[in-house]
């Protein structure tokens, strides 16, 4: 059992780091999504959003 844990530890650590980086990128991008939402609501026009580019 100890050998299995020692073998998997670097992989779990790497996946954890990637998950935290992904989460942080989402947290930093979320305010930009809110701005897009507000800008689209103010214009009232059916302009294509950033997702359709």
Description:
With 53 residues, the protein is mainly α. It has a domain at 13-40. It is built from 1 helix and no strands. It has one helix at residues 2-43. It is rod-shaped, with a radius of gyration of 20 Å. Pfam families: UPF0093. InterPro entries: HemJ-like.
Would you kindly provide a brief summary of this structure?
With 53 residues, the protein is mostly helical. It contains 1 helix and no strands.
Descriptors for this entry?
53 residues, mainly alpha
Helices and strands in order:
Layout: H1 2-43
Q: Report helical residue fraction.
A: over 70%
List the quaternary state of the chains: single chain
- Count the E strands: 0
Which structural class should the secondary elements be placed in?
A: mainly alpha
Percentage of residues in DSSP E strands: under 5%
Global shape: rod-shaped
Mean pLDDT: 88
What order do the SSEs take from the amino end to the carboxyl end, as H and E? H
Task: Point out poorly predicted stretches.
Answer: none
Radius of gyration: 20 Å
Main sheet attributes: strand count, strand direction, barrel closure: none
Figure out the total of helices. Answer: 1
Through-space gap between termini? 50 Å
